[in-house]
Write a structure and sequence with these properties.
Largest sheet: 6 strands, parallel
Number of strands: 6
CATH architecture: 3-Layer(aba) Sandwich
Shape: globular
Order of helices and strands: EHEHHEHEHEHEH
Oligomer: single chain
CATH class: Alpha Beta
Radius of gyration: 15 Å
Structural class: alpha/beta
CATH topology: Rossmann fold
Length: 182
């Protein structure tokens, strides 16, 4: 079966514990329900990670540190039979006005083009309003997680009239909700 539906995942606060610029392998902690939830979705969707990593631009860690940490995550998921097709990351600061920082749709458009993704059947999952705007800007459905920074920014969704398709406090619940909607 050829999959043409995607789930684009934010990383910090969505898949892993957000420990203020997570880049040290010894600080790695996968969030509850992530493995189970991704395993429920993997037969129907391709998985991608898109993450803003301004800690690189701020000089807190290097691109190499990012890749070492991210490879640890990918290996952990792989050991649980979960494949991430590709990770896209923005190393820039907001004041750099780049084209790759979420919520700008550069990476979401690239994923759709490179993998022939059906936008209307695909999802973005994240814990920040910029993740939801990113998904909406790309034509995807969205899930807002109250994990990571999610609880802190929940009011921002309302203030800016950002409307995710699903709001939940646990990755496994997000997966189950997506499956109910297809």
């Amino acid at each position: 079966m050829v999959k043409n539906k995607a789930i684009i995942l934010d990383r910090d606060g969505t898949l892993i514990e957000d420990k203020n610029y997570a880049y040290k392998v010894e600080d790695f902690e996968i969030l509850p329900g992530v493995i189970e939830g991704l395993n429920q979705l993997k037969e129907l969707f391709l998985f991608f990670i898109v993450t803003n990593q301004s800690g690189i631009g701020k000089g807190y860690y290097s691109v190499e540190d990012f890749h070492n940490f991210n490879n640890h995550l990918l290996n952990t998921l792989d050991k649980n039979n979960i494949k991430i097709e590709k990770t896209y990351f923005c190393p820039h600061l907001a004041e750099d006005h780049c084209e790759c920082k979420k919520p700008k749709p550069k990476f979401i458009q690239l994923i759709a083009k490179e993998h022939n993704i059906n936008l209307k059947e695909s999802w973005v999952i994240g814990d920040h309003p910029s993740d939801i705007l990113f998904g909406l800007n790309g034509g995807y459905k969205t899930v807002y997680l109250r994990t990571g920074h999610g609880e802190k920014h929940i009011e921002e969704l309302e203030q800016k009239s950002i409307k995710p398709d699903i709001i939940t406090d646990h990755f496994l619940k997000a997966s189950q909700s997506i499956l109910k909607k297809i």
